[in-house]
TrEMBL record:
Species whose genome carries this gene: Thalassospira mesophila
Keywords linked to the UniProt accession: Membrane, Transmembrane, Transmembrane helix
Protein name: Membrane protein
Pfam families in alphabetical order: DUF347
Coiled coil: none
The keyword Transmembrane helix is annotated on this UniProt entry: yes
Regions crossing the membrane: 47-66, 78-97, 109-129, 141-161, 167-188, 195-212, 232-250
Length: 259
């Protein structure tokens, strides 16, 4: 769980979970919830895009403050922050496209550039992009900023693929899922760098989750299954809570610090 570092007897804890199958299951479900929860609050609850954005941004800031204040990884606050940042990332893209009239093509390119700049700044400052060594506040800030841009980019890219390019929700999900599978194969059989493979897969899970969310929630007339955003959110939240509780008890996703 921890690694001695610098001061004798001092334990330095990593602030993020180990990348296991549980990690990817919760991550994909959290990205799907980010898509459907934003739509549910905005449309079904009638809050509107602006009010929903302010509420969720406030909750995200509160969660981030708690997360950063922790001395080690704690599943409940980490995954709550991921879910909230998923929703806010979706809302950022929706505001740019729906309220400001910026095209999906432009937002996709803009968030790609923002993500690239964040990676470059992170590496220049820390000489690593590994999530195995998130034990300082600066590294954690870089980490969460990166996560925010991956969610915003994934929302824009997923919508661009399914709607702008007319791929449809099911085909988009299959394409993004296939790209994740290829990345996994490249890691295990072609020795693709572990850090690069992780971030490629992490970025791709967002448009995959967004496509799956739209596929399940959108009406059949628009290419979806019409399952309803409330039902999807309820089921996914229940599964996420159960998995987080399991990980809290078993500690199967605890990660020691390594530079």
């Amino acid at each position: 769980m921890a690694l001695l570092k610098d001061t004798p007897g001092e334990q330095i804890f990593n602030k993020v979970p180990e990348v296991t199958l549980y990690f990817w299951i919760i991550k994909i479900m959290a990205t799907t919830v980010g898509e459907t929860a934003a739509d549910y609050l905005n449309v079904d609850m009638g809050f509107g895009l602006t009010v929903t954005s302010w509420i969720m941004a406030g909750l995200l800031i509160a969660a981030l403050l708690v997360q950063v204040s922790k001395k080690k990884y704690e599943p409940w606050i980490y995954w709550l922050t991921v879910i909230l940042i998923s929703i806010v990332g979706t809302l950022i893209t929706d505001n740019l496209v729906d309220n400001m009239g910026i095209s999906l093509e432009v937002t996709t390119v803009a968030f790609s550039i923002a993500l690239a700049i964040t990676f470059i700044a992170w590496f220049c400052a820390e000489r690593t992009l590994s999530i195995h060594s998130i034990y300082t506040t600066r590294r954690e800030i870089f980490y969460w900023l990166t996560i925010l841009f991956t969610f915003a980019l994934g929302t824009a890219g997923g919508d661009l693929a399914s709607e702008g390019l007319n791929w449809g929700y099911a085909q988009s999900a299959l394409i993004f899922g296939g790209l994740i599978a290829l990345t996994t194969l490249a890691f295990y059989f072609l020795r693709l760098n572990a850090v690069l493979a992780f971030w490629i897969a992490y970025i791709l899970t967002r448009p995959l989750g967004a496509s799956l969310g739209d596929l399940m929630s959108q009406p059949p007339s628009e290419g979806g299954l019409g399952l309803g955003t409330f039902e999807i959110n309820a089921v996914f939240f229940a599964v996420i809570i159960a998995l987080v509780a399991f990980l809290t008890v078993t500690r199967k996703d605890q990660l020691p610090v390594t530079d």
